[in-house]
Specification:
This protein has helices at residues 2-5, 12-43, 62-85. It has 108 residues and is an all-alpha fold.
Length: 108
């Protein structure tokens, strides 16, 4: 804990490391996925079960690459629509209740 986070206290070094790791992690996952797809699309796949096979590898058809890119674009468009046009729809409604120390919230 001392080496990775800088100690047990939540302070500036701890938060800096936390936020930097959580910012870098998605890019690392996307990079690994990109390398995986690039190698899979280049060499194809054969012998997934370990059986003896002496046939040529089948190239990954461009249809699947285009389909993957199109599906990613549709997903990104949907997420972007929610984020940019309806940002409060997936939030906690309790965050929109005005603060009033004299009133107990309805959910309690």
């Amino acid at each position: 804990v001392e080496w990775l986070w800088g100690g047990f206290a939540v302070d500036s070094p701890t938060l800096t490391r936390f936020f930097s790791l959580h910012f870098i992690l998605p890019f690392g996952v996307m990079g690994a996925g990109g390398v995986h797809l690039a190698l899979l699309h280049q060499t194809g796949s054969s012998n997934p079960l370990g059986v003896n096979s002496n046939f040529s590898k089948v190239k990954f058809h461009p249809y699947y690459s285009v389909k993957d890119v199109f599906g990613g674009g549709v997903f990104l468009a949907g997420v972007s629509t929610v984020c940019f046009f309806f940002p409060w729809d997936l939030g906690d409604p309790e965050n929109l209740i005005p603060a009033n120390p004299l009133l107990t919230p309805t959910h309690i």
